[in-house]
Write a structure and sequence with these properties.
The complex is a heterodimer of chains A (397) and B (330). With 397 residues, chain A is an alpha/beta fold. Chain A has two domains: 8-232, Peroxisomal Thiolase, Chain A, domain 1 (3-Layer(aba) Sandwich); 243-393, 3-Layer(aba) Sandwich (Peroxisomal Thiolase, Chain A, domain 1), CATH 3.40.47.10. Chain A is built from twelve helices and 17 strands. Chain A has helices at 23-31, 70-83, 108-111, 113-126, 131-141, 156-170, 186-194, 227-232, 261-274, 292-305, 319-322, 329-343, and strands spanning 8-17, 20-21, 38-39, 47-49, 92-96, 147-150, 175-182, 215-216, 218-226, 239-248, 281-285, 313-316, 345-346, 361-363, 369-370, 375-382, 386-393. In chain A, strands 1, 2, 5, 6, 7, 9, 10, 11, 12, 14, 16 and 17 form a twelve-stranded mixed sheet that branches. In chain A, α6 (156-170) packs across α12 (329-343) and α9 (261-274) packs across α10. Chain B is α+β, with helices and mostly antiparallel strands and 330 residues long. Chain B folds into two domains: 6-221, Peroxisomal Thiolase, Chain A, domain 1 (3-Layer(aba) Sandwich); 233-325, no CATH class. Helices cover 27% and strands 23% of the residues of chain B. Chain B is built from ten helices and 13 strands. Chain B has helices at 53-56, 67-83, 106-119, 128-131, 136-145, 160-173, 190-198, 264-268, 281-284, 291-299; strands at 6-14, 20-21, 32-33, 44-45, 95-100, 151-155, 179-186, 214-221, 230-239, 246-249, 254-257, 307-313, 318-325. In chain B, strands 1, 2, 5, 6, 7, 8, 9, 12 and 13 form a nine-stranded mixed sheet that branches. Classes of the chains: A alpha/beta (397), B alpha+beta (330). At the A-B interface, α3, α4, α5, β6 and α6 of A face α3, α4, α5, β6 and α6 of B. β6 of chain A pairs antiparallel with β6 of chain B.
Chain lengths: 397, 330
């Protein structure tokens, strides 16, 4: 296998973030250090971030009688953005979500399901399975390859990209659309509220005084293919997906391993598969939720994974800008990491005044820092102890 | 370690046939009249047979778990028992878990919605919420058995189980894991049953679609480590045009290729002596996740050394295709 045929590259990106639709909006918002967290209107106390521009219009390829959840609609919008005018019939689709059509279910359903379905809910409930998001994307853009949904809590988005990259190398399809989409909904807000995991104020990831997370919503889709195929069709190569890894803590359903064991292993394995030394990583986009347990475990994982590094590794959590987008988080943060590589910009963690102690980490705060880099890493973790790390690199023609 | 071929060394399942370690053999379970909740007339389903979890998995507390999580643990334990594999004796970081589910942890999702209905969204139950997550079953399997490698939960309209098997095989082939536990299944709740009813899928005579529930598990390992239930000779996605191109015609007992450009190569490669695997009523009642039950049933019926072509067609026209070979001696 030639290097070009065993190298996975990114040739398109679509984003719907709390800054709006498009990669440009995300980039401008991050460069301006704009915080999109706002007080919750329908669930208090707390802050959250929504996609201000609701992508309500569906393409003609979407079945008129089918109910599309908000997660579906966000996913369709970004997939179309990633594809542009290109023909993608042979593409496969791997989409992450945790919410899918849960946003469409109402508590009244459980009192009398048959009545609720008859009244309004039959098609709405049909949007509940996570597989529907991948189906919606595939149908909307005309991708007829394998379609799969990934449902691994907050690590889903990064895992979708990793699994799609592997499918590219396996020849499952010549190109893959991979990412995640999750809508803000009462189900998840109430769940994190019940767990007392929500910060009633804008979150402060990695701050010693952090109090929890804020939920966001959004979607992102990356178009993946082999370098060989991208070169053959003269497609613009935005970045190289140099390596990836997935692990599990095997420890607890909601708490990360106290020493960040699984996450450290994951980062080390991702660097190994990328052929990147720890010193080569110019930026880490952290999982950084802002919860007391996650951030301390994650900082310990950095201490382990980057113990061989000569200088502290620059790390930030952009969840401080637009919240935790759950199943979409890994894909959105992959897009942030690509912007960092392409623009040579290191984005700060907002409101970070008193960082947790970790000598191996250069906690980014204040204003964006400009610094070119050869490689950057996006790190995700989730309930269930799952971890994923993606290493992106600059493409040199 | 990257491996070329893969052995299926363990099979296990929990469902209408009860807890089973090994292939599914014998007569198929019969649908029973649904009495657990009010129906619009006589309705039938294949519900999971009751069993004591402590008999399958001693010293593991599953009291607060969703049924899908508890059954996934049981199916995994039964498959590992069939394989003779003690995961505590191997490197856990090299053990992957790939789980497929169509509807996730439905029982506790409905219970969580019920707590919101009763008390409001701000007074919901903190114990239920994390157990509603679709990856909770795979996470519990990782925690109980020490599987520290990739842990993935997938869904797919139609071939979710086959997708999980393909992904697990890919993890082994690419060197990301040395062994994998593959799980697939769903549970039936009143909410889902009523949806089938409202969609007009159920009939009063037990014909047509009969919903079922259960979880099946398969252990994949590098070849030669222990007795194989089957060898996974090939596993890949096959691209086909024309949407749902494969259809089982019960009347003529044949497979109908609906599109001329279907993966004819696959079908043509079947020898004239090819037989179709026995029907699997459990799998038929699991719209997305019945694939592993089909394999467990087929492996319980095929003669030694026979080859088995497993196909799972997606709406998109893509097809998960696997070629298995039963060992020469059982």
């Amino acid at each position: 296998m030639s290097e070009a045929s065993s190298t996975v590259v990114i040739t398109g990106i679509g984003v719907a973030s709390p800054y709006g639709l498009g990669l440009g909006r995300l980039e401008a918002g991050l460069l301006a250090s704009e915080c999109r967290l706002a007080p919750l209107a329908r669930f208090s106390p707390g802050f959250a971030a929504t996609v201000a521009e609701y992508p309500g219009e569906l393409p003609a390829t979407c079945h008129a009688k089918r109910w599309f959840s908000r997660s579906d609609r966000l996913a369709i919008a970004v997939a179309r953005d990633a594809v542009g005018a290109d023909e993608v019939r042979e593409c496969g689709v791997v989409m992450a979500t945790t919410v899918a059509g849960l946003s469409e279910l109402e508590p009244q359903l459980v009192a009398d399901p048959a009545r609720w379905y008859r009244a309004a809910g039959l098609e709405r409930a049909a949007s509940y399975p996570v597989a529907r998001v991948a189906e919606a994307v595939g149908d909307a853009v005309g991708a007829r390859g394998p379609r799969c949904a990934v449902n691994v809590a907050c690590a889903s988005g990064a895992m979708a990209i990793a699994l799609a990259a592997q499918m590219c190398l396996d020849g499952a399809a010549p190109a893959m659309l991979a990412g995640g989409s999750d809508a803000l909904c009462e189900f998840t807000l109430s769940g994190f509220h019940a767990l007392q995991a929500l910060d009633p104020q804008p979150c402060r990831p990695f701050d010693a005084d952090r109090r929890g997370l804020n939920i966001g919503e959004g979607a992102a889709v990356l178009r993946l293919e082999t370098l060989e195929r991208a070169q053959a069709r003269h497609a613009p190569v935005l970045a190289v997906l140099r390596g990836w890894a997935m692990t599990n803590d095997g420890y607890h359903l909601t708490a990360p391993h106290e020493q960040g064991r699984g996450l450290a292993t994951c980062m080390l394995e991702a660097m190994r598969t990328a052929g990147a030394e720890p010193d080569e990583i110019g930026y880490v986009n952290a999982h950084g939720t802002g919860t007391p347990l996650n951030d301390v475990a994650e900082s310990k994982a950095y201490a382990t994974a980057f113990s061989a590094r000569r200088q502290p590794v620059p790390v930030s959590s952009t969840k401080s800008h637009f919240g935790h987008c759950l199943g979409a988080a890994g894909a959105l943060e992959a897009a942030v990491t690509l912007i960092a590589i392409r623009r040579g910009a290191l984005f700060p963690t907002l409101r970070l005044a008193n960082p947790v102690e970790c000598p191996k980490v250069d906690w980014l705060k204040g204003r964006p820092r400009h610094q070119s880099m050869a490689a950057a890493m996006s790190v995700s973790a989730g309930f269930g102890g799952s971890n994923a790390a993606l290493v992106f690199g600059v493409h040199t023609a | 370690m990257s491996i070329g071929s893969i052995d299926i060394t363990g099979l296990g399942s929990v469902g209408p046939s009860g807890p089973v370690s090994g292939p599914l053999r014998g007569s198929a379970p019969a649908p029973t009249l649904v009495t657990a909740w009010t129906t619009e007339g006589p309705r039938y389903a294949l519900l999971g047979a009751a069993f004591r979890m402590a008999d399958v998995l001693p010293r593991v507390n599953t009291r607060r778990l969703d049924r899908l999580s508890a059954w996934s643990l049981a199916a995994a334990a039964l498959a590992l028992r069939d394989a003779g594999l003690d995961l505590s004796t191997v490197d856990g970081s090299r053990t992957a878990v790939v789980s497929a589910t169509g509807f996730g942890c439905l029982s506790l999702t409905e219970a969580y919605l019920g707590s919101a209905y009763e008390h409001g969204w701000q007074q919901t139950d903190p114990i239920y919420f994390p157990e509603t997550l679709g990856n909770a079953p795979a996470a519990h399997v990782a925690r109980v058995f020490g599987c520290l490698g990739p842990n993935v939960t997938v869904g797919s309209r139609g071939p979710a189980a086959e997708s999980a098997l393909l992904m697990a095989a890919s993890l082994l082939r690419s060197g990301q894991a040395d062994r994998a536990l593959v799980l697939a299944g769903d549970t039936l709740t009143r909410g889902l049953f009523d949806w089938y009813e409202a969609a007009g899928l159920l009939t009063g005579d037990g014909g047509g679609f009969v919903p079922s529930e259960g979880v099946a598990a398969i252990v994949l390992e590098a070849p030669g480590l222990r007795r194989a239930r089957a060898m996974l000779l090939d596993a890949r996605w096959v691209q086909a045009d024309g949407g749902e191109w494969l259809q089982w015609d019960a009347a003529s007992a044949t497979v109908v290729a609906k599109a001329q450009s279907a993966p004819a190569g696959l079908l043509a490669s079947l020898s004239p002596q090819a037989r179709f695997a026995p029907a699997c009523v459990i799998a038929d009642g699991l719209p997305d996740t019945g694939g592993l039950f089909r394999i467990l049933t087929a492996l319980g019926a095929v003669a030694p050394a026979s080859r088995l072509l497993v196909l799972g067609a997606a709406r998109s026209g893509a097809c998960a295709a696997m070629l298995l070979e039963a060992p020469a001696h059982d």
